[in-house]
Write a structure and sequence with these properties.
33% helix, five-stranded parallel sheet, 544 residues, eight-stranded mixed sheet, alpha/beta
Length: 544
Amino acid sequence: MKKSDLKKIMAVGAVVAAAAGAAYLVYRYNKNRREDAAKIEKLKNANAYILGGGMSAYAAALYLARDCGVKPENIHVLTDRKYERGNAEDGYICRRGKIIDDKNSKNLFDVIKDVQSLEIPDLTVCDEILNIYNTRPAMRGITFIDESGDVTDITKIRLSKEYRRDIIELMRGRKENLVSLPLRTVFDDDFFDTSFWKLVRASYGFNEGSSAYEFVNAVAHMDDALSGTMPFDFDRHEEITEPLKAHIISMGIDVCEGAYATDIDFESGAVEAIHYTDNGVRRIVYLNDGDVCILPTDEMAECETFGSFDESAPRCFGEPYLLWEKIAEKHSAFKNPSALFDESDDTMAEEFTITLKNHMLPELIDRVTCGALGSDGVIVLDNSAWKMTICAVPASHFKDMDEETAVIWGTASRYDVEGEKSGKPMTNCSGAEILYELVSCLNLDEAWDDIRETVVNVIPCHRRYDGAYLAPVQSKLEIIPTGVTNLAVSGDFADGDGSVFTEEFTVTTAKTAAYRLASNRRRVYTAPKLSLASIKKMLKKNFK
């Protein structure tokens, strides 16, 4: 055979192969379109069951109805969520909140763009939040008081070049390797004595046993939110979650109050039945072909108890993850949650909220800290036995909070050691004992009687699994678990991209869950990752 003939044959073969490949791609594309169209058509009359409440649950319900063609009346949200926030007469209760970055929260703002404020007519929650952000300071003031009592502004906190390099090297690691790596195995003991670590610990609730992956995520976002997850501009539940819940109810979505799922039955990789309790009555619902369900994990770590001025918060022994534990026994894709919700102190948090009739105590604190508290400042008290952190809660945080009332939120990273004045661990202290420990730490003992007269309440709070989502284990769930066809997962324990410390992460998992169940091929926005160069520059600028 001539060489020229061989070339012609090869050319014809290449054309035929390319045509065959193109034909196959067209075939696959059309087949996928037909399958998606059939699934979307089936969803129009399908039921969707959302097995929990909270932000990701309500966001998922909205996306199913608005973007995926599920009839609102066919979407059923089972929620037994009880949210304690207190009041001006009995004392407020503050919590850590998710970070909202107004530049990279596109999914969050998409879900609340049409949600009406519950207090201001003709104003959306989205506009209300942006109005608050436009009037707040660009950066929250953070002050560090070291063990010698010296006051240091955040701009003076340093981190050695070696540790900055170690953090950057850690960020080069693969997610699957970093997730199960405890920080105590990554850094030496001296790192945990640095002011930088103590700032990150206070801001985000980390401890030495937390996941290295979540640590590098937090560091990557520090330039936008140095104050981390501490209470700030508004209460996330009151400002976002409650209006969103009201909005989906107005759409016709069935929100079943006082109901919660107790078990799930599977058949051939699909959810066959849901067992639930509806206001004390046990019920079961069987799913039809095309029905879907979503498992929000927002409430999985909610196990909290409260004390008062005269009483400590009792220890909490609830099991909010019990549903997850049951279905993990039935399906291997649902990894056993016991590693996340263990009984070690690494997942616990102790917090307190001080409500005052006036601003006398904040003003006294400002006198001895060079104005560090102000209206929204943060003070890390490394000179306290409990390693307390306090922050001023702005008047905008609660909608019924007036300008005269002052609120201070606090937490401690060494709550299990004896206080200098109480002689007891913080976990065993009443609100009065916690307040006196704080006052003494700031050398304000002589003003105690006057301070006591201004107190409305000091509410200690014990959160049993508050740091469970920071645990160094490979137990988070795929948004669509492998081998499961009609169930998706959303919320803090979903294995999504981005930072779990952001409200955007919560909404993005909900949107992804809804879209994948409905075969909605619209792109789900993910915030761009910061480059290592930009993170290196941020660390050098802020902590050199």
